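Q: Could you fold this chain for me?
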Amino acid sequence: MHVNLPIVNVPTGQITLRADSSSIKADGVSTVQITSEPIRDRYGFTLLPGILIRVTTTNGTVVQGQYVGADQEGRITFTLRSSAAPGQAVITARSIEGDATGTITINFTP
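A: Sure. Below is the predicted structure, expressed as structure tokens.
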């Protein structure tokens, strides 16, 4: 007998990102911490710890690298380091499996 079980814990929907500041100094050293709200699968369950979310930025550097694992509450937390030039960074968090995605913008000021 073969039973098909649904695949659970595949991230879906919006990833809401919040930063501890909307702007930081453009000096190549300053950082901002960004944390998501709990990321959920299609059944409403939070992600299991360690499930990876890909994080990219258009400016600056994600200190942890491009993959960040979910914590015990299904959240991701990472640090963005500014570039040396003023401008904006659009940070995108996207699930490797599933269709969960979210963005946040951080300004780098002179």
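A (continued): Residues 15 and 102 are 4 Å apart (CA to CA).
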